Amino acid sequence: MASTFMDIDDVPAAAATPALNITRALGANGPSMTPVSDVVPTFRPTKLFQRDDIKDGKSQPYVLSIDFDDPGELCMTSESDETIQIYNVKEGRHDKSLLSKKYGVKLAKFTHTSSSIIYASTKQNDAIRYLATHDNSFIRYFEGHDGTVTNLSLHPGSDNFISCSTDNTVRLWNLGTKQWTGKLFLNTPYLSAWDPSGNVFAIASPASGSILLYDYRNYEKAPFSVFDVLTARGPAESDAAFRSWTKLEFSNDGKHLLLGTRGDGHFLLDSFDGSLKAYLRKPGAGTSRLAAGETDGGNTESSGECCFAPDGRYVLSGAKSDLLVWDILKGAGSNKMLDPEHILEEKRETAVVAYNPRFNMIATADRDLMFWLPDPHV
C-alpha cells in the first residue's frame, strides 16, 4: 500500500506525489440500492482490509473515524498512526494512504467535493485542516480552538461546518475563509449535528445533561429548545444522562435524534420535543473507546459507534462483538426499552460504524476496516 506525502510533512527530494486516481463509476457489481428493510437481516462481513504497510512486528493502528463521500463511492478512515486511508467502494480495494505525521489526524470528513476533506489535528495545535486530495496540498487551516476538537459536522447542503472543542466553544466556519464565522461559549459542547434541512443544528453538552437546538439563521440568540436528557432518560441509569456520550445524529427524515453512549444503551429522542422514543438497549458490553471529550482510561477515542440507516427506520451500533440493529418502527413498550431486532455476527469489536449514504453498504472498524454487504443468497 503506497504512501503519499502531504506538503506538511518533510518530503524526500526523490519522493513522487501521485495524483488521487480513483475510478468513480459504479457498475452492476456495486452495492445494492434495494430498500434497507429488505436487506438489513442479510448483511454479512464481506471484505476485510488489513494494512499491509505495517511491518517490523508493529500492531495494526486503530481506526478513529469512517466517512463516505456524498456519492457513496469512496470510503475514508483516519487512523491512530496519523494516516488517512481512502478506499474504492465499487472495487472493494484500498486506493491511497495520506500521511499527516507532523500534526496528526482524526475526525476526517469529506466535503461535498469528494476530492477535498477536512480533519482535526492531534499534535502541536488544535487547528482544523482543509486538504485537496488530488494533489495532496492544503487549501487552508482553520485556527482558533485552544483545546482538543471533539467533533466536526458538515452542513448537509453547503460549505459550512461546525467544530466542537474542549475549550468550551462551538465555532461555525465556511470552507471559503480561514476565520470562523460564528462562536458560541457553552459548557462541554462536545457533539454537534445538523438536521437534514440544514436550518437547525444541535449541540450536546454531557456535563449539563442537555441538548441545545439552534436556528442556524439566528444562532447568536439563545437556543430555541433545550432537551433535558436526565428527564428523558427513561430506564437508563442517571449517570448515562451526564457522561460518556459518543454520537449525536438526526435521522434523514428529521423526526428523531440519536444520542449514542458508551453505556448499556443509546437514547432515541423525538427531535421536536426531546421526549424519549426508546432506550436502545445493548445486550452485551459496549466498545472500549473513549467518548467525545474523555481523556481518562487510556483507551483510544473514536467518532462514534452508532448511526442511522439512510431510511431513518434502523439504528446500527457496534459493540465488543457483533453489529446491533434496532427497528425503531417496532416501538418501545411502556418501559421505553427496545432490544435489537437483528444481531449481525462479527467476532471483532465494532468500535466505529458508518452506513453508506447512497447504497446498502456498511463499514465497521476497530483496528481493521470491514465492508458489509447484503448476502444475495439469503
TrEMBL record:
It holds the Pfam family WD40. InterPro entries: Swd2/WDR82, WD40/YVTN_repeat-like_dom_sf, WD40_repeat_dom_sf, WD40_rpt. The keyword Nucleus applies. It comes from the Eukaryota. This is WD40 repeat-like protein. WD repeats lie at residues 142-175. It comes from Trichocladium antarcticum. One of its GO terms (biological process) is RNA metabolic process.
